[in-house]
């Protein structure tokens, strides 16, 4: 099979972790006899510095011409610490989502036996937790207009907008994944306060009738935030709007014990993007200490979701599990044991794949 991917490493630790994920991707392609082609492009702060645009047209054209996008991270203190900056790296991410039609972000939340003791929650609460957060990506308050500040700067305003089409598309996606899992969907909203949330609930209640084999529940976002901590094993597929999903998925990530372990997939109309959920971690850039496992697991999602190659994705997961069992891990999860470098972890996983 021919696999064509765009590689957007981005800022901070992005180039280092993406390099390891790309090495793993190449090892898998060779192992299974696939023809892999890849091309790199700039995005984020490095793109602003180079051409003044966090998501240049050349980068967009490459993504549109690719079957999948392997993405690192964006963000830089240079822009984070400058409130007057007119262009920011994060605007590149929003532009990419909009232009590529990335309407759904999927984050699997899975616990790893060797990391359960690092979770801030009790082991009995998190052991066996395995659910999926599906977040709508292109609507809501992040994209609604009008948005801005008054002329004197004393007032700021944002607008939350959703259409029936946007909501229906993401709810149907949630049901499609629930049918492959444990047949339960939790729709998270704030329907007791927000008009957009009431529309979400109305659309979901209409679609619920089409999926009688799936249990559907509705939960206010504040209750969901509490339930994720108190009883994470109660969830199977959680679906929600953009800002709620942004917050809840970051909250859910701590269950695993390390942000460096969680991958994500952004499903789009034109192509799909696969990336770790952690940030650019500029303090670690160039030091070869960042955890590459979330990015490597994002490559596993890429094989499964973009190319429908399940065995390839599963072998990557097996290799990651093996590296953790062998304690070939970076300093963020190594505790008192030996900490391996980013490149060493990546090479160990490549070697494991080649030996299988």
What does this structure look like?
- The protein is of the alpha/beta class and 356 residues long.
- The protein has 2 domains: 1-102 and 277-356, Isopropylmalate Dehydrogenase, CATH 3.40.718.10; 120-256, Isopropylmalate Dehydrogenase, CATH 3.40.718.
- Helix content is 43%, strand content 19%.
- The strands form 2 sheets. A 10-stranded mixed beta sheet has the order 2-1-3-12-11-4-5-10-8-9, sandwiched between helices.
- β11 (263-268) and β12 form a beta hairpin.
- α7 crosses α8 and α11 runs antiparallel to α12 (310-325).
- The two termini are 20 Å apart.
- 47% of the residues are buried.
- Belongs to the isocitrate and isopropylmalate dehydrogenases family. LeuB type 1 subfamily.
Present the secondary structure layout:
Elements: E1 2-10, H1 14-32, E2 35-40, H2 45-51, H3 57-64, E3 68-73, H4 77-80, H5 89-100, E4 102-110, H6 123-126, E5 130-136, E6 148-149, E7 156-157, H7 164-178, E8 184-189, H8 195-208, E9 215-220, H9 221-230, E10 237-240, H10 242-253, E11 263-268, E12 273-276, H11 293-306, H12 310-325, H13 331-334, H14 342-355
Parallel strand pairs: 1-2, 1-3, 3-12, 5-10, 8-9, 8-10
Antiparallel strand pairs: 4-5, 4-11, 6-7, 11-12
């Amino acid at each position: 099979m021919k696999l064509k991917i765009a590689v957007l490493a981005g800022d901070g630790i992005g180039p280092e972790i993406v390099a390891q994920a790309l090495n793993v991707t190449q090892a898998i392609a060779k192992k299974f006899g696939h023809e892999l082609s890849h091309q790199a492009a700039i995005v984020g702060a490095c793109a602003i510095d180079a051409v003044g645009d966090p998501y240049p047209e050349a980068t967009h054209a490459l993504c549109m011409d690719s079957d999948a996008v392997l993405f690192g991270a964006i963000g830089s203190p240079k822009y984070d610490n400058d409130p007057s900056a007119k262009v920011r790296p994060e605007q590149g991410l929003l532009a990419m989502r909009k232009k590529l039609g990335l309407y759904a972000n999927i984050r699997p939340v899975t616990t790893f036996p060797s990391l359960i003791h690092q979770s801030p929650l009790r082991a009995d609460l998190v052991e066996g937790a395995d659910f999926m957060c599906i977040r709508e990506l292109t609507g809501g308050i992040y994209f609604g207009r009008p948005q801005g500040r008054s002329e004197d700067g004393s007032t700021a305003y944002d607008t939350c907008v959703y259409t029936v089409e946007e909501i229906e598309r993401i709810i149907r996606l949630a049901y499609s994944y629930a049918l492959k899992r444990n047949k339960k969907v939790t729709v998270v909203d704030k329907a007791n306060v927000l008009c957009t949330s009431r529309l979400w609930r109305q659309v979901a209640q209409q679609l619920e009738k089409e999926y009688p084999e799936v249990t559907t529940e509705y939960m206010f976002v504040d209750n969901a935030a509490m339930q994720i901590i108190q009883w994470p094993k109660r969830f199977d597929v959680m679906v929600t709007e953009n800002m709620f999903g942004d917050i809840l998925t970051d909250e859910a990530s701590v269950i695993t014990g390390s942000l460096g372990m969680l991958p994500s997939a952004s499903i789009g109309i034109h192509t799909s993007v696969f990336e770790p959920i952690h940030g650019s971690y500029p303090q670690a850039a160039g030091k070869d200490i960042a955890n590459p496992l979330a990015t490597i697991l994002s490559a596993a999602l890429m094989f499964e979701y973009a190319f429908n190659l399940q065995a390839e994705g599963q072998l990557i997961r097996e290799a990651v599990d093996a590296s953790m069992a062998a304690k070939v891990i970076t300093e963020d999860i190594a505790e008192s044991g030996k900490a391996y470098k980013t490149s060493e972890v990546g090479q160990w996983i490549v070697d494991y794949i080649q030996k299988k």
